[in-house]
Amino acid sequence: MTCLRFLGVVLTALVTVAGGKLKLIGDELASDLHGNAVAVRPAKKSMADGPEPGDLADSFTVRTLDGEFSYKQGPQLGPLIVHAFTNKSGFLECLWSSESSLSSLVEELPDSTQVLFLSLDDCALSDVWWMREQVRKKEVLSRLHFSPVPVFALGNWIPFVLYYWGCVSRNCVLAQAVFSSEGWNMPIIIKRLDARYDWLMTRWTQTSYQLLDAGDGCDASPTVAGAVAWVSEGNCSFFTKVQNMAKSNASGVLVYALPGNPIQDMNCIKDECNTTLNIPAAMVHQDPSVAQALRSAQLVFVSFQTTPSPYFFFGVDQQGALSEMGWFLYPSFSFVNWQAQWFDFYTELQTKLQNPAKVVPVFDKVQMQGEEGAVATVNMPPGLLDFNVLELDASLSCPGKRDLSCAHWDHTVQLFICCDRLSPHCNTELGRWITAFRRGIGRWLTDVSPLLPLLDGNKCTLTMKTVPWAMPWVVSLNLRFSIGNHTDNGKEVLHPFLVMSLYNGGTFDKNYNKKFQPIKFPVPASTKKVELYAVITAHGSDDHSCGEFCVTSHHFLFNAVFNNSLIFDTAGSPLGCTTRVIEGAVPNEHGTWLYGRGGWCDGLQVDPWRVDITKQLEMNGSNTVVYFGLFEGHDPNPSKDPGYIIMSSFLVFYK
Ligand SMILES: *[C@@H]1O[C@H](CO)[C@@H](O)[C@H](O)[C@H]1NC(C)=O
Ligand SMILES: *[C@@H]1O[C@H](CO)[C@@H](O)[C@H](O)[C@H]1NC(C)=O
Ligand SMILES: *[C@@H]1O[C@H](CO)[C@@H](O)[C@H](O)[C@H]1NC(C)=O
Ligand SMILES: *[C@@H]1O[C@H](CO)[C@@H](O)[C@H](O)[C@H]1NC(C)=O
Ligand SMILES: *[C@@H]1O[C@H](CO)[C@@H](O)[C@H](O)[C@H]1NC(C)=O
Ligand SMILES: *[C@@H]1O[C@H](CO)[C@@H](O)[C@H](O)[C@H]1NC(C)=O
Ligand SMILES: *[C@@H]1O[C@H](CO)[C@@H](O)[C@H](O)[C@H]1NC(C)=O
After folding, report:
1. What tens digit of pLDDT does each residue of 36-70 get?
2. Is 148 or 19 the better-scoring residue by pLDDT?
3. Which domain holds residue 388?
4. Which residue of 231, 279, 538, 647 could cross-link 505, Cys pair, CB 3.0 to 4.6 Å?
5. Number of independent structural domains in the chain
6. Confidence (pTM)
7. Closest atom of ligand 2 relative to the 233 alpha carbon
8. Is the CB of 127 within 6 Å of ligand 1?
9. Quick one: 423 and 523 in the same domain?
10. Long-range contacts: 592-597, Cβ < 8 Å, 24+?
11. Which of the two residues, 24 and 426, has the higher pLDDT score?
12. What region holds the Peptide-N-glycosidase F N-terminal domain (predicted)?
């Protein structure tokens, strides 16, 4: 494609080369091009300290292909996503070429969301013209704004955010292949897109490799042993090519696009994904000099590098605050949609937090780390028995303003409460969350009303902690007491008055179910309702990926007949946790947050499982309950590294 620039010089090219459709654009823009080319307002204040995530975005106006786009500081009806494209990135080229990526933009962008598209390139005009052409569904276009003014000529605060925040995320650097050959003065450096982490875990090393032609790579090619194989697109799957080259002992594979084709996201399909390949692979455009050198049997070497670049995406939420967008694990607009869904979730959460409630602050930006965690002793409000709703308003943020300051790993966070040192309920678990991989935006409202009887005391000590070796998190927690009607569909409002502990989890091996003995219990007089309440998560990785990524089920059997089951059927599914972003799961984490897991997601609260079991019980006789946990319907029986179940479970009696 011809490089069309927005600024002055290339106006003739715009009109003469582009023809039909582009001429229209030329005409539209002509007055600007002749006059003041950059139709943006100057920045209002000094940016010495720079806007950071969480700061209010300033007002701005930019020229677009359709007129102009104006943003006014303050609360917004919906989020704004700003994307700066560059065709120097193979990742972004694929993001804008892949059918599945583009269809997720046009089909799934939340209705609330607007996107402003910019380009970092000299050829901003042709870039954004091409980008708009890629979006074929016109209904969505009214919410997409394409600016032909290159980022370096915007003259407002946007470039500052893009340059100053920089690219810290996976795939937001310029990944490149560097070719050299004896006859050349200069190396040839072109963009590349590495194959998906899904099936290729191996990364390129710093080494320089010889490059050898291996045709279409659809057959083994013994000559490439120790070299990087140069393989054409087509005739068989990407997976087949890489597998053949791995069998041929190649050190890596470069698949080149056929002329006119874009760089694609090389991934496995279906059953192919069962096989792990252990050589790196990437896709590039075919470079004529490289092809020519290989044809004439010249020695060609290739090495791999990444070059930093400005940030490609940032967001402005409904509160008007700037936000990072996290990692895009592969080239798809789904990551934009997930972040936008999360902005919608967060806005709804803000509304819920306006509902009347008695709020008891526990932690206000307190550091949680080490054996101790975060600890606070708080006075409980009088008249607690009048409330029947208790919600935990918890957030986990990072020591700094950027996600880069956040803890790297996903760990279980538990909140324990003790209102009476002598009670068997002292330090019972009141809430559980899983930390996000390196993102500090998480905030959740969890309904733990059935556990209200645990808060029976004037003073309660709350302890929130994770594993002692985790990097620090900054926690905030409010207890929200209110009166709700959710107990019985408009019938009399019931209050929980007694909590009875049942079972805890443990090592998920062949002896797991042996330790759970039936528990006998009477129902106290005047009880109107009994509820089973359990918080269960599965962790670890045995030979069946249990419990994090395998399907486990958990059963509470009452009076030997009533079998209440909780099945973690999305555990291990590729996108299981993406469906929970609308419920507050932190999107675009710096890790594999997308997979479904055993009863949990990264960056989310663990929802309590609640079952009304009143009808399963003898209200004036004796009852029994027993718990058991299964893997695919059977006792677990791992041959190595058993996983474990973390469980709190209770009977809750209401009157
Ligand atoms: C992006 O780069 C590729 C290869 O360098 C080229 O084929 C394509 O036309 C470019 N796209 C745009 C919009 O300039
Ligand atoms: C595909 O296979 C045909 C027949 O073997 C061959 O002629 C052609 O060059 C191959 N295509 C590519 C892209 O290598
Ligand atoms: C690849 O390497 C293995 C182990 O060194 C060797 O046994 C095998 O013959 C090699 N295969 C090819 C195609 O070079
Ligand atoms: C690949 O794995 C899936 C899921 O574990 C399984 O259903 C399928 O049979 C496997 N395919 C092959 C070819 O092994
Ligand atoms: C119960 O509360 C919900 C809001 O939480 C409300 O929509 C509903 O109308 C209420 N039901 C009754 C019977 O009061
Ligand atoms: C439980 O008590 C009620 C009322 O006191 C009585 O009608 C019922 O028969 C009793 N049920 C059992 C199983 O004892
Ligand atoms: C309870 O249900 C599960 C399946 O949902 C089944 O595997 C299990 O055997 C059942 N247990 C009893 C005691 O009925």
Report:
1. 333 333 444 455 578 999 999 999 999 999 999 99
2. 148
3. 353-492
4. 647
5. 4
6. 0.90
7. 13
8. yes
9. no
10. 592/329, 592/437, 593/410, 593/436, 593/437, 594/329, 595/549, 596/549, 596/568, 596/570, 596/571, 596/572, 597/538, 597/548, 597/549, 597/568, 597/570, 597/571, 597/572
11. 426
12. 359-481
